[in-house]
Amino acid sequence: MVSHTILVIENEDVVRENILELLEAEGFEALGADGGREGLVLAERHRPQLILCDVIMPNYSGYDVLKALQESSDLAHTPLVLMSAKAAPGDVDRGLRAGADCYLTKPFSLQELLDVIGRALKLPKTG
Q1: CA angle, 69 as apex, 66 and 72 as ends, to 5°?
Q2: pLDDT tens digit string along 76-94?
Q3: Which SS3 state, helix, strand or coil, does residue 111 take?
Q4: Which domains, ranges and CATH numbers included, belong to the chain?
């Protein structure tokens, strides 16, 4: 199986580390950033196949990251999944209308995370 690189942009250390551990246990190469600006630097440097990004972060939100990606000729086609505890239908719709490939509401299970990753990366279904 080809290893996919996934960048996790999440300002909560415990949440970010948990996601990174889950991804690595599933065979993905996982990179972590604690904020939007750092995440964009890592995205430019490592060209991940997918970015998982928290919506609510200080200074540079998930929407700021999404806009920066859309304006980048190198990263505009990188799938981005927004993650947030804000789970009202309006929040989800706003994220998808802004251009996110998926919107994952927190808390989520490992299976929900893997399903969203599979859809975003267009991976064949397993099991």
Answers
A1: 155
A2: 999 999 999 988 889 999 9
A3: helix
A4: 5-121 (3.40.50.2300)
